[in-house]
Amino acid sequence: MDAVKELDQLIATLDGAVGHTVAANGAGDAIERMLEAPDRATRVRSLRDSPALVRFRAELVRGAVRTDTAARSLRLVRQLVRTLVATGG
Question: For the whole model, what pTM was predicted?
Answer without folding.
Answer: 0.53
